[in-house]
C-alpha cells in the first residue's frame, strides 16, 4: 500500500500527454437534456456517447478514482455517492464522446460547479481514460473554462485493470527498488501495475517484510497491502481482517508522524472496502454476483 501523504496529486494536462488532454478540453459537449441524478451528483451523457462496456476489476477502478480524483479534489462524498460516481464512469466510458460529472456548490461555495470530463482514447494501441476538470491547482479555485493549468490525469486500461498512469510498469524503477531493498515499494509497484505476471512476487516480498527486521510502519503497510490483495481478489471479509490487524499495529509505531500517515492509509483502505461492498450489493440486487477477473494474486 503506497504512502500517499508524500505524493503530489495535483496534475495538469501539461503533465499528462498535453496534446491529447487539450483535445479533450476543446470538445464541444452535447449532453442529454435529462441528466442522471444520484446522491447529490449530476451525471451527463453526451448524445454521441457509446459505452465501451469494459469489464473492470472493482478494486482497481475504486482505488484509481478514489485516490487520484476524489481525494485530491477533496470531494466530500459519502461511500454511496462515491460508488455512484465510480459506477457512472465505469458504465459510460466512451471513445466517441466525453461524458461529464457535475458537482454543484463545490466546497460549499454557492454557484461554484466542478466539472469532471472523461473520455476513452486509443494511444499507440493502448486504451486510456483521460480525465480533466475545471479546477486550477495553482489558484486553488474553479475556472470558467478548462485549460492547460486545469487538474487532469490519465489511466491505462489493460485487460480488467484500471491503472493510474504513474503506476505503469517501469523497468528502471524496478531495478532501483531491488538495489535499495525497498521491498514494500516493489510490492506496491507489482500489485498496481498492468503486468499480471509479477503479481505472484508480492506475497513473498511481504513475507520478508513481516519476518525480517523492518520498522513497525513497514509491517503495518505490509498488512495493508495484503488487504489490497484480498480486495483485488474479491475477498472483502479477509480484507477487513487485515485492516483490523493494521489498526492494532498502529500502536507499535512510535513516531507520531509515521503513525498519522499509516492511519490515513488505513482510512483510505476502509473507505475503499465500503465502496466495493456497495458496488457488490448493487450487483447482487440485480443479478448474480460477478467473480473477480484479475486472477488470484494471493494464491
N to C succession of SSEs? HEEHHEEEEEEEHHHHHH
Strand arrangement in the largest pleated sheet: 1-2-3-4-5-8-9
Mean pLDDT figure: 87
Task: Output the radius of gyration.
Answer: 19 Å
Instruction: Give the helix level as a range of percent.
Output: 40-55%
Shape: globular
Q: SS-based structural class?
A: alpha+beta
Give the helix tally: 9
Oligomeric description of these chains = single chain
Poorly predicted regions are 288-296
Give a quick precis of the structure:
The chain has about 300 residues and is of the alpha+beta class. Helices cover about 40% and strands about 15% of the residues. It starts with 17 loop residues before the first helix and ends in a 13-residue tail after the last helix.
Structural commentary:
By secondary structure, the chain is an alpha+beta fold. Helix content is 42%, strand content 16%. The chain is built from nine helices and nine strands. It has helices at residues 18-25, 58-70, 79-92, 171-179, 183-192, 202-211, 216-232, 236-249, 256-286, and strands at 36-38, 41-44, 99-104, 113-123, 126-133, 135-136, 141-142, 152-158, 161-164. A seven-stranded antiparallel sheet has the order 1-2-3-4-5-8-9. A two-stranded antiparallel sheet has the order 6-7. A hairpin with a 4-residue loop joins strand 6 and strand 7 (141-142). Helix 2 (58-70) packs across helix 9. The protein is globular.
Which characteristics define this entry?
single chain, seven-stranded antiparallel sheet, two-stranded antiparallel sheet, 42% helix, 299 residues, globular, 9 strands
Amino acid at each position: 500500500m503506497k504512502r500517499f501523504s508524500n505524493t503530489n496529486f495535483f496534475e495538469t494536462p501539461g503533465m499528462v500527454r498535453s496534446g491529447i488532454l487539450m483535445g479533450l478540453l476543446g470538445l464541444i459537449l452535447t449532453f442529454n437534456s435529462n441528466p442522471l441524478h444520484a446522491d447529490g451528483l449530476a451525471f451527463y451523457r453526451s448524445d454521441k456517447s457509446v459505452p465501451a462496456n469494459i469489464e473492470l476489476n472493482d478494486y482497481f477502478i475504486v482505488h484509481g478514482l478514489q485516490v487520484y480524483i476524489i481525494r485530491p479534489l477533496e470531494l466530500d462524498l459519502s461511500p454511496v455517492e462515491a460508488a455512484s460516481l465510480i459506477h457512472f464512469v465505469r458504465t459510460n466510458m466512451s471513445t466517441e464522446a466525453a461524458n461529464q460529472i457535475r458537482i454543484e456548490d463545490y466546497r460549499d461555495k454557492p454557484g461554484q460547479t466542478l466539472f469532471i470530463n472523461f473520455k476513452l482514447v486509443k494511444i499507440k494501441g493502448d486504451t486510456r481514460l483521460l480525465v480533466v476538470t475545471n479546477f486550477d491547482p495553482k489558484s486553488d479555485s474553479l475556472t470558467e473554462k478548462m485549460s492547460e493549468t486545469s487538474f487532469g490525469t490519465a489511466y491505462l486500461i489493460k485487460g480488467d485493470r484500471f491503472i493510474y498512469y504513474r503506476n505503469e510498469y517501469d523497468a528502471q524503477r524496478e531495478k532501483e527498488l531491488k538495489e535499495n531493498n525497498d521491498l514494500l515499494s516493489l510490492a506496491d509497484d507489482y500489485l498496481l501495475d498492468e503486468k499480471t505476471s509479477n503479481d505472484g512476487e508480492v506475497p513473498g516480498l511481504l513475507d520478508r517484510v513481516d519476518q525480517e527486521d523492518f520498522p513497525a510502519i513497514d509491517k503495518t503497510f505490509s498488512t495493508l497491502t495484503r488487504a489490497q490483495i484480498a480486495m483485488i481478489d474479491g475477498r472483502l471479509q479477509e480484507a477487513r481482517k487485515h485492516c483490523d490487524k493494521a489498526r492494532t499495529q498502529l500502536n507499535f509505531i512510535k513516531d507520531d508522524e509515521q503513525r498519522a500517515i499509516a492511519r490515513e492509509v488505513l482510512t483510505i483502505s476502509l473507505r475503499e472496502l465500503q465502496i466495493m461492498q456497495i458496488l457488490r450489493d448493487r450487483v447482487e440486487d440485480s443479478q448474480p454476483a460477478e467473480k473477480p477477473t484479475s486472477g488470484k494474486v494471493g494464491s
